[in-house]
Amino acid sequence: MPVSQEYLMQHTTKHVLLFIDLHTNIATTIAKLSLLPKKNIKQVTLFLEYYQHHFFVHHFLPSSLQTKLHQQWKVQLEQHIKPLLSWCTQHQYHYQIIYGEHAHSLEVLIDFIQSQHVDLYIKPTSYHEQKANLLNHNDIHLLNMCRVPFFICDTSTSEGEPKKNSQPTLNVLICVDPLPDNDMFSFDSTLIEYAESYFNKLPVQFHIVHTYSPLPETIILETDLVTEYKNHTKAMLQQRQEALIKLQQQFSIIKHSKCYMLQGIPDCVIPKLVNELYIDICLLGYHPHSHWHQAIHGNTTKKLIEKMQCDLLIKPNQNHKITTN
């Protein structure tokens, strides 16, 4: 199914917001930025996070030294990002720099994204960060509030010069889910449509995966119901496979891709598939939840991120409404 020009205009990446602090591996980050569709980038904003209200600084240094130290941090950040500025100049991108103090960076980011119409938010992982802490409470809140696509560059595996990808094409895994209207046999094509515009004209090999977790047979207490439940599960799986094939045939970019129907918990089976296929980027959907739902059930996307060994492109659901109280 060809993508209309109007749709491409809606999903074209124009304004990129890049999060940077003193721990960011700049060399590897620049290498990761090469994965972006350059022809669609018009504006790059560098968000430089610094620490002002550090306990030691605030309690043990006089105000005059505090001011000098804050200025020194900003100078170090500006020196730190010089290669990034050269990269922007080389590709003729318009760029600007904004600053955010660590304690208030979330408010600054949300206000900027909403007011400046950011199309893609990029956060490189720092070498000292753990995956489990990457998508923290602030990032979840930002996704809920702004619904902006979120690209997580995994730079934690390289402390020196970035390793060049020997493969001529990118391996991209798209995780598809059923439509949210309780129709378990029709898949949501939003991520595929986004991938079709985002990776337009880039050398990409797509892979499609859907996971399902049927209830265990042990919950069936009546023996005569076990066979009926097995038949029901088998029929449901067949219908999902047919729906996945139908979805694949609708889009030219994935028509020759391999589809995977995996049984199991997503955050267990998908990371294993990522490693087996040497995936470079995994495209995930994100469905915001209320704080109550988050506390009780957790979030599948967050659990996946903690175990993934690749870059992640998270596309929030634009139409899902939540209560943030």
From TrEMBL:
Main location: cytoplasm
Domain of life: Bacteria
Entry function: Required for resistance to DNA-damaging agents.
Location of the UspA domain: 192-314
SUPFAM superfamilies hit by this protein: Adenine nucleotide alpha hydrolases-like
Subcellular location: Cytoplasm
Keyword presence, Cytoplasm: yes
Protein's name according to its UniProt entry: UspA domain-containing protein
A GO-annotated cellular component: cytoplasm
UniProt keyword terms in alphabetical order: Cytoplasm
UniProt xrefs under Pfam families: Usp (PF00582)
Gene3D superfamilies: 3.40.50.12370
Family as reported in the entry's similarity comment: Belongs to the universal stress protein A family.
